[in-house]
Amino acid sequence: MARENINHNNPLNAPGYLAWHVTQKGEKSFWNKVGAAWKHKDGRGYTLQLETCPINGRIVLRLPLEDAPETANDAGRS
Predict the structure, then answer these.
(1) Which of 3, 18, 54, 61 has the maximum number of C-beta atoms within 10 A of its C-beta?
(2) How many Å apart are CA 48 and CA 53, to the nearest integer?
(3) According to the 3-state scheme, what is the secondary structure of the chain?
(4) Burial level of 36, CB count in 10 A (0-12/13-18/19+)?
(5) How far, rounded to the nearest angstrom, does the alpha carbon of residue 4 sit from its chain's CA centroid?
(6) CB atoms inside a 10 Å sphere around CB 38
(7) pTM reported for the whole predicted model
(8) Could you read off the pLDDT of 26-50 as tens digits, one per residue?
């Protein structure tokens, strides 16, 4: 099966999920956006594109918030 190259920078091809690196410090969680995921055309998987690769914490995929401004650090998210 041939694979197609898809340009993920096209604004019409918005990601299905945003990837967040989450670290815990005491009772507080810190969320930093590290990438995004796009659904495959056949619906059987996702392509995950990371801008950075964290070495600790966890990566969480969340649906994008449609009305929220994009920020580098969403410390209030939990």
Answers:
(1) 18
(2) 12
(3) CCCCCCCCCCCCCCCCEEEEEEEEECCEEEEEEEEEEEECCCCCCEEEEECCCCCCCEEEEECCCCCCCCCCECCCCC
(4) buried
(5) 21
(6) 17
(7) 0.68
(8) 999 999 999 999 999 999 999 999 9
CB 8 within 8 Å of CB 23:
no
5-8 contact pairs (CB < 8 A, 24+): 6/38, 6/47, 8/36, 8/38, 8/47, 8/49
Return d(Cα 48, Cα 56) in angstroms, integer.
18
The tally of CA atoms less than 13 A away on the side-chain side of residue 57 is 18
- Residues, the chain, total? 78
